[in-house]
Amino acid sequence: MQPEAPIYHKLEQMGLTGKKWDDEYLDTAPQFKDISSNVLCSVEGSSQGAERTGRVNMVRSIMTDDLTVKDYSFESGAEETLALHEFDFDHLFEGWHLARKKSSAGHAYGVLMTQQETEEMTELQAADPLTGVADSILMPILDRIEAAHLIPPSRFSPRVVRSVYRHVPAAGSVYAVSPFVIARRMGWKQRHRVLIANIASGHNYQEAPGVGPLLSFLNSEPRTDAELQKFWEALGSPEQRLRKMMGELLENGTLVICQEPMQLTEQQMMPEAARAVSRSVSLPVLTR
């Protein structure tokens, strides 16, 4: 609270109470006490900060009939950008588009479309812009497009993946595909490179064709280091290339670490050791 602020002289009128600094603090710099004694330590009351700003914005919106805050405003749903009945298209690379909409469950749903698929969907949406494409027409199209993905989207419910936030993975970690990522192999004009897109952020990446089998393997279920290494050896590829590829996929957010190897602390190891000893003592002695 600045001493010369307009509200400083009418705190009671605003339902606020100012509390000044105690003398033991002011006496640490007695030469400035005539100034510091007017500085408030805290302000008590309900009409403060964000609450007061919110009230001002509400009154201003009512008086002007215009939203003061465009995003995250007091109007329910004003921050929503994706529509429920139509796709929003973002061109990514050489005719490939990221098509996004809100699903019936309320989460962001997206697919990667070719130029031909984008034009087909655009025409269908233009034919009925108010209610959108009928499900009897839309669902078979989405089934076909999703089947072409290496990592397909989740249409009817959001994917949930546990994530452990680490910059450098520990040996023995378990890896999974990010719940916000979709991927699809592009055509021969793009040398069959893999196009990866993040539905939440809109960011997209391109990877070499060799990453396709690895993504499909990881998308089926979370995988350990040992499982990944065994799968990679079966493909006849060097381990060094796997490590480099995994590092790039973790860096751009395509993959997440969903579990780390359990490391027992000294306090945890003591009861574990005690239980092991008790089990060994209780085992029967077998004789012939």
What does this structure look like?
The structure is a single chain. By secondary structure, the protein is an alpha+beta fold. Among the domains are: 6-47, no CATH class; 88-151, no CATH class; 174-259, Outer Surface Protein A, domain 3 (Alpha-Beta Complex), CATH 3.90.930.60. Helix content is 35%, strand content 19%. Strands 6-8-9-10 form a 4-stranded antiparallel beta sheet. The protein has a 3-stranded antiparallel beta sheet with strand order 3-4-5. A 3-stranded antiparallel beta sheet has the order 11-7-12. The protein is flat, with a radius of gyration of 30 Å. Residues 264-269 and 277-288 have low confidence and may be disordered.
Helix and strand topology:
Layout: E1 17-20, H1 23-26, H2 33-36, E2 40-44, H3 49-64, E3 88-93, E4 96-102, E5 108-113, H4 115-127, H5 135-147, E6 149-151, E7 174-177, E8 181-185, E9 194-198, E10 204-207, H6 211-220, E11 223-224, H7 225-234, H8 239-251, E12 255-259, H9 266-282
Antiparallel strand pairs: 1-2, 3-4, 4-5, 6-8, 7-11, 7-12, 8-9, 9-10
